[in-house]
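User: Design a sequence. Structure:
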């Protein structure tokens, strides 16, 4: 069984991009939200990143799921899995398989902003799990949580946010996001969260500034997106990729540093922007977590952590919390 709801049109996305670019390039310091990395090329580059020797998070999370998915499924005891930011689906299948073995799973609700990608991957899940009711939702899960088809059959729900997607948000919006998730759940429901952990800064920086330069290409790709979508004339080769560990905030920052004094025109916004040599545009934060801090944040949103799993190296965490 398969259906797809579209809560987000191409026009909504275009408006959001215009708003974010206009605000971000006129603020000091300049910044852009990371969600605009992911056009077709950006999504393919991210897939390449997940296979890099330096980028451990995807492998570490997969290892946890390979070892613990049955425990997770037993603890969640859920009728529906709602996955926010559903990605390419390898990890999802480990979870779905375990939940199916557990025996209660009837519904899968993958939610993503990228409609084409979501439709293709959700459709494949529906084919491979013929007894599962697959209800895909195209939406911005930071804003449209209230529109989700939660609890259509009355059973227990699990909401999953994997891949350390949550690390892209600053603490304020992150707290609001966690509260929003809590507000669509009821007692007995659970929240499964994948979160990357604080570790040696050299390893963190290497994970976001790989030797082959794939992450640098991914970072610069946001400029290609703005060129194409908003008629801008960025020359991506005039920007260097920078990854830096912010010790105080405990997050990785990715930045694009202008190599020269330059002037950029964003035609569709009627906007001209100057970059001085060495000036940096922040393109992403990727927050890293500690168990105590995460418990506190979850608690602040009304969740009680019940399970905590890491990979054998202690690099990445999966936690299950009760609503
Ligand atoms: C998809 C947001 C989890 O923060 O590690 C990877 C994105 N950026 N390399 C991350 C990313 C650079 C990734 N997330």
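Assistant: Done.
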């Amino acid at each position: 069984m398969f259906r797809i709801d579209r809560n987000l049109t191409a026009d909504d996305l275009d408006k959001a991009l215009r708003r974010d670019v206009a605000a971000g390039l006129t603020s000091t310091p300049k910044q852009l939200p990371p969600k605009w990395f992911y056009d077709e090329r950006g999504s393919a580059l991210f897939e390449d990143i997940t296979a890099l020797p330096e980028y451990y998070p995807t492998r570490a999370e997969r290892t946890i799921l390979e070892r613990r998915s049955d425990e997770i499924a037993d603890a969640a005891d859920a009728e529906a899995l709602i996955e926010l930011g559903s990605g390419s689906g390898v990890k999802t299948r480990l979870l779905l398989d375990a939940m199916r073995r557990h025996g209660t799973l009837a519904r899968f609700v993958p939610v993503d902003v990228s409609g084409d990608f979501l439709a293709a991957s959700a459709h494949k899940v529906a084919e491979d799990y013929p007894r599962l009711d697959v209800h895909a939702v195209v939406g911005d899960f930071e804003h449209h949580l209230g529109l989700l088809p939660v609890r259509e059959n009355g059973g227990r729900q699990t909401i999953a946010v994997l891949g350390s997607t949550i690390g892209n948000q600053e603490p304020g919006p992150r707290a609001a996001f966690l509260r929003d998730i809590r507000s669509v759940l009821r007692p007995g429901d659970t929240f499964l969260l994948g979160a990357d952990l604080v570790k040696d800064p050299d390893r963190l920086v290497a994970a976001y500034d790989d030797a082959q330069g794939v992450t640098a290409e991914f970072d610069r790709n946001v400029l290609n997106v703005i060129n194409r979508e908003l008629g801008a004339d960025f020359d991506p080769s005039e920007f260097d990729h920078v990854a830096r560990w912010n010790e105080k905030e405990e997050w990785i920052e990715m930045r694009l540093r202008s190599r020269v004094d330059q002037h950029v025109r964003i035609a569709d916004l009627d906007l001209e922007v100057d970059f001085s040599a060495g000036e940096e545009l922040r393109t992403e934060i990727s927050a890293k977590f500690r168990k105590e801090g995460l418990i506190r944040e979850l608690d602040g949103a009304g969740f009680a952590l019940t399970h905590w799993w890491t990979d054998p190296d202690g690099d990445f965490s999966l936690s299950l919390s009760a609503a």
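The chain is about 35% helix and 25% strand. The CA atoms of residues 69 and 95 lie 6 Å apart.
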